[in-house]
Amino acid sequence: MNAIETTGLTCRFRQLEAVHSLDLTVPAGSVYALLGPNGAGKSTTIKMLMNLLRPTAGTARVLGVDSQKLGPTEFARIGYVAETIDLPEWMTVRQFLDYCRPFYKKWDVELEKTLLKKFDLPPERKIKHLSRGMRMKTLLLSVLAYRPDLLVLDEPFSGLDPVVRDDFIRGVLEVSSLGNWTVFVSSHDIEEVERLADWVGLIDQGTLKLAEKLDSLQQRFRRIEITRASGISTPTRKPAHWQGWEEAGALTRFVETRYSSGETEKLCAEIFPGANVTAQPLPLREIYLSLARGDAVPEPASSLR
Amino acid sequence: MPSLIWHIVKRDFRHLWLWLAIWWGLLVATAVTVAQFIQRILTQRPEGDLYGWLWFFVLVDAVVLMVVVEAILKSDSPIDERAFWRTRPIGKGRMLAAKLASIGLFCFVVPGIIQAGERMIFGFSMGEFFRGIVQFAIVEGLLVALVACAAVLYQRTVQGLLIWLGIFFFFVFLEAVGVFYLSNTIENYTVAAFFIGLTSGWPAVDLIFGTAFVITALMYAGRARRVGKLALVCGLLLVWTIGEYYQARVYSYFPAADSTPRNNTVKLSVSPRPETNKLAGDYLPSYYKNRSQLYAAMDNPTFPELKDTVWLIYRVLSRLQWPGDKSAPIDYDSLVAGAGGISPSQLINAPAALAAAGYGRLAWEPVSGWRDFPVTLVNGWQLERIKKEPAQITAQIYIASGHLERIAEVSTNSFAWQDGITNVDGSPRQTGAPLSSWQDGPNRICVRSIVLHDLDGISLSLDEVRPWYLHLTPFWPQENVRNSGNLLYLLYNHQTQECVEGISNGGNPEFDLAFVRTQPTVYFNFNNKTESAGPPPQAFADKKALTDWLKNTRLVELRFVHTQNFYVPVTMDAYLLPSKLPANATDVKH
User: Fold this and answer.
1) Closest partner CB to A86 (pick from B84, B88, B225)
2) CB B418: neighbour CB atoms within 10 A?
3) In chain A, whose CA is at the least distance from the CA of B17?
4) At A26, is the secondary structure helix, strand, or coil?
5) What is the DSSP-derived secondary structure letter of residue B428?
6) B425: which residues sit within 8 A by CB, 6+ positions away?
7) Main-chain dihedrals φ then ψ at residue B355, nearest 5 degrees
8) What pLDDT does residue A13 have?
9) Contact criterion met (CB below 8 Å) for A204 and A298
10) Which of B86-95, B227-236, B347-356, B368-377 has the weakest average pLDDT?
11) Quick one: residue A249, left, alpha or beta (phi over 0 = left, psi -120 to 50 = alpha)?
């Protein structure tokens, strides 16, 4: 079963199409990272998923329910964390948690205490006096404590210092490991996402460019370095899935976007006879950059689901 | 899950407790001011600055109320994507219920309790209490609905209020277009008449604010899209405007005064006259524990002479201007009816009822149109919204006819206190400005401290009736009185000394009957062509003569006639209350 499923999801603000016919599938139990530059449509997508925005076209189902019909039953199973959420500034952290608790039958007081300690939050401090990171951690705590089936994080790392980010990610990871949680996180902080996600989607200008399992993606993207033998020149025609071509003397470097162990080396050997070929895994950041720059030809998102 | 609603209400209280404390404190302060206000009324002392304080408190009260309502709704806005509750497991309907509960508790229940305390101090009955609460809820509810609607429609309430203002002016524009059309198609329909109707129109206010409330509910319970809601508002206003046009077209204007005798009978109900003291007791406002306390407060004894008098109780329907008389200026107000037609109980009770039962109501007057205001009457009198009766004021006239001198004296003081000649004690009465200036009359009246003496001998200062005057509505040509065949008219002249003398000398054929001989200031005009009674005598020898005449006459017309063409058509239910009744005298009808 999929936790989130969208079909042709579109959101248009007058002339601007923020999200264009988005087909997205988030498998239950996965940690899905929706990556994209600022203004790519990540938050708009999430707002539609959370029934905060009405889609112009298309449908979205969240936990099996039409997103426009999400009600108390579904929201009891969804934890939504976004920087933009208005918290009651006048409350202390403890008052805020006290306020949230009655909304949820599954609220785990022990977990709340544990997280309060783990996140190092001052319970008697008013929210308006909290730092940005503490506010986010408070909000995260308020959703983790009831163990939601689906955790939706909208740009959770934005503006957080590394320590807080680490706390945040640890919190999510630790708690999500306690059950079969689905985490859907939008971000442009790739390093942090790489620690969390097992699925990655790339959205740009409202269009989903890629959606794939992270290990599959990392398996597919490799940096190839070829030390050409003397007398072997650069070929005039290269495969389209070889991107980011760089040359320095006898060294040729590019990104193979369809790496297949053995096959890629064989192809290289055909083009560069006698060359020394090495294939190295790429960090997600470089994959992202490669895709974001449009160098790479992504696999069709739908075919990779 | 009511507990969740209560949970949110408690959260709202913790959020707003400071504002609420300030507001409720203001209400208490206002109540104290009102208490002093009433005490001063009862003891006939000038009220000084209390009235100003009252207004100040109430204006501040309104501002704080708006802040509170806005904060309650903004804390869980239905339109703000950032609102915390929108992704939490609480339904829209439940959140609406929670918000209504918060507003109801903070803005109505607690203030109501504060008022209850105040009213208990003054000894109001439960009926009066609840009536006052309803008034409070209605008037305050209007403001709450407006602010609530603005707060839920837009992320910035000010923006919402401005939109409302825009809609209002759009509505005025629509009305203006209609008026232009009507003024060209209907005689006597004027732009001025339209605007007066507009500013004093409760239906329009009710419609706008009722719609505001509905929109608020829909914004929570339904899809938070405001375009449809605003379209709804405009649509309703359009319907209302068209209704106004239709109404203007349907109403015909009151015909010119017709002197033809009518065959309508006077309904005479004859029943034992209550003892004077009991009668006075009937008028006791509930904030008096007993009669002696009332008399002490009023500082006037009853008139012993009135004990054996015959009482005529007239039900008076008055209007400012004789509709058919186009020559008459229209800028009169109807205070003469208030003065002449208000019963002692009204005179006594209305100020207290208005002030004590509803200081908030007084306060909202500038918001909701102060001329058109629900009036709470006590002692079983029906709650009247003056404006609700088209072009009519219902009031009572009490006339003692035992001795004509007494009639003159009492009547003079009942009816002629503005431009009368003397006071009851014979001292010169200050003649005042024409009635048309009474629009801003309360201050003038206060300064003069003219004292009214009503039939039961309870002395009434104009300070006491002052709040009443604020709520009497001037009638305008477009607010027509239906020329009902059941209406009886008695011409009643309110003249200056010179005019009266002229009449007494037989110089004015318009006035046929003077009820008084020596200081005639009150005139009843019975048409001398009545079928059975014949011309009324110039004077009655005794009360029997008067009673007999009344039983056999057919009153054709009763008017208040001011020297400045102040006419008041009147319907009359006449009750004869003699001290010794004939055995078969009950409900005699002619």
Assistant:
1) B84
2) 26
3) A90
4) strand
5) B
6) none
7) -80, -50
8) 86
9) no
10) B368-377
11) left
Q: How far apart are CA A73 and CA B139, in angstroms?
A: 39
CB contact under 8 A, B15 and A90: yes
B384-to-A182, B346, B373, B387, B396 alpha-carbon distances in Å? 65, 12, 9, 8, 13
Q: Annotate B170-216 with three-state secondary structure.
A: HHHHHHHHHHHHHHHHCCCCCHHHHHHHHHCCHHHHHHHHHHHHHHH
Q: Does B301 touch chain A (CB under 8 A)?
A: no
Contact B499, B561 (CB under 8 A): no
Q: HSE of A113 in the Cβ direction (CA atoms, 13 Å)?
A: 2
pLDDT of residue B74: 86
Q: Please indicate whether residue A30 or residue B582 has the higher confidence score (pLDDT).
A: A30
Check if B15 contacts A (Cβ < 8 Å): yes
Average pLDDT over residues A19-45: 90
Angle at B75 between CA B218 and CA B98, to 5 degrees: 55
Name the residue facing B89 among A50, A84, A104 (closest C-beta). A104
pLDDT in tens, B412-429: 333 322 223 333 444 443
Rounded Cα distance, B302 and B460, in Å: 12
Amino acid letter at B525? Answer: N
Angle, CA of A98, A103 and A107, to the nearest 5°: 70
pLDDT score of B179 more than 70: no
For tokens 């305050």, the residue is B140
DSSP 8-state symbol, A229: P
Q: At what angle do helices B359-368 and B462-471 cross, to 10 degrees?
A: 40
Q: Which residue has the tokens 């009507």?
A: B182
Residue in the structure block whose two tokens are 């903004």: B74
Residue B40 and residue B355: Cα distance in Å, rounded?
12
Minimum-distance CB partner of A86 among B83, B90, B225: B83
Residues of A in contact with B12 (CB under 8 A): none
Phi, psi of A33 (to 5 degrees): -110, 125
Q: Provide the token pair at A233.
A: 């020149």
Helices B344-356 and B462-471 pack at an angle, to 10 degrees, of 70
Query: B56 and B97 in contact (C-beta within 8 Å)?
Result: no
Q: Which residues of A touch B81 (CB under 8 A)?
A: 47, 52-53, 84
pLDDT above 90 for B501: no
Q: What is the pLDDT of residues B187-205, one digit of tens each?
A: 555 555 555 445 444 555 6
Q: What span, in angstroms and rounded, lies between the C-alpha atoms of B182 and A233?
A: 94
Q: Is B119 helix (H, G, I), strand (E, B) or coil?
A: helix
User: How far apart are the C-alpha atoms of B281 and B303, rounded to whole Å?
Assistant: 14
Closest CA to B511 of B549, B553, B554, B563: B563
- B169 or A211: which leads in pLDDT: A211
ipTM of the complex, rounded to two decimals: 0.84
Contact residues, chain B, for A103 at CB < 8 Å: 4, 88-90
- The tokens 């359009």 sit on which residue? B238
C-alpha B293/C-alpha A47 separation (Å) is 70
In angstroms, how far is the first alpha carbon of chain B from the final one? 66
Can you say whether residue A41 is alpha, beta or left, with left for phi > 0 and alpha for psi between -120 and 50 degrees? Answer: left
Q: How many residues does chain B have?
A: 590
Decide if B88 and A100 are in contact by the 8 Å CB cutoff: yes
Q: What is the number of residues in chain A?
A: 305
Render pLDDT for A98-136 as a digit per residue (tens, 0 to 9): 999 999 998 999 989 988 998 889 999 999 999 888 898
pTM: 0.58
Q: Is A104 touching B (CB cutoff 8 A)?
A: yes
Average the pLDDT over B511-538 and give the result: 31
Q: Using DSSP, how many helices (H) and how many strands (E) does chain A show?
A: 10, 14
DSSP for residue A92:
B
Q: Which of A200, A219, A220 is nearest to A210 (CA)?
A: A200
Crossing angle of the two packed helices B50-74 and B359-368, in degrees rounded to 10: 70
